[in-house]
Amino acid sequence: MKKAGVVLLVGRPNTGKSTLLNNLLGRKVAITSPKPQTTRFPIEAVYEDERGQIIFIDTPGVFAKVEDQLGAAINEEATQAIQGQADVVVYIIDPTRKRDQEENRTLGLVRKLSAPKILVVNKTDQAQEYLADYAFLENEFDTILQISALKRKNLNRLFDAIFKYLPVQKPLVKTDDLVQPALNLDSKLYIAELIREKAFLNLREEVPYTVHTVVDEISERPNGDLYIRGRIITTHDRYKIMIVGKSGAMIREIGMATRKELEIASGKKVYVDLTVEVNPHWMESV
């Protein structure tokens, strides 16, 4: 009989959890950027092969210091996801950066879990200046692996380790009708997340954290082109000016980057119509 189970991907912000999820699946389901708060809610996605089925849960990074309602909400989402039922925990560390309070807080949550734990040392494609800081973890985990999520190095070994610890049982979800592996993302939410990713990558340091994105319409025109109408919502007029950019240059750049990725993924011509709104209270409703 095959194996199946829930696998948590856990780590402090920017350890490469979402990059790892995308490359384990062989398909992009989670947005990525070098900035914290890129992942704002847990992403659930299914993987299957001849050995069985894995439900991955990519958890947001836990912040040591929360400065707004959004940060508090992300911490709550992350904590609840980590404390949920899991068959295997994959704890991802980034030894290119010093350990900090975020690491300590996340590790404290992981230590409370009884499921088998795999320690994943990520970013082996870079100089691991602070690897020695994590030596104390060697006896706390069932398996330790060194990988590069970005370069897809040793992901096969990670799959082997995960399936080793999963229980023998029937699949947890039916996948016959799934068009993509994400279980909690519909088309509008996925494209909204994609727009937010492009905003994170293009905007100045402080602006992305004020941004929320919504897709109001996805439609196919008679000629087969896809039309997408979306909104970028921010908290202040000064941020709106930055998002729009001089003569609309920045909003066009965000829309163009979104369009290019969707055209590659869909094989269709895509038109992205973006507007920018100001709502000082949007964080209260997310």
Automatic annotation (TrEMBL):
Q: What is this protein called?
A: GTPase Era
Origin organism is Candidatus Gottesmanbacteria bacterium GW2011_GWA1_43_11
Q: Please report the stretch or stretches of sequence annotated as the Era-type G domain.
A: 3-168
Organism phylogeny: Bacteria, Candidatus Gottesmaniibacteriota
Q: Does the keyword Iron apply?
A: no
Q: How does it assemble?
A: Monomer.
Q: Where is this region: G2?
A: 37-41
HAMAP family tied to this protein = GTPase_Era (MF_00367)
In UniProt terms, what function does this protein have?
An essential GTPase that binds both GDP and GTP, with rapid nucleotide exchange. Plays a role in 16S rRNA processing and 30S ribosomal subunit biogenesis and possibly also in cell cycle regulation and energy metabolism.
- The annotated region (G5) lies at 147-149
Query: Where in or outside the cell is it found?
Result: Cytoplasm; Cell membrane
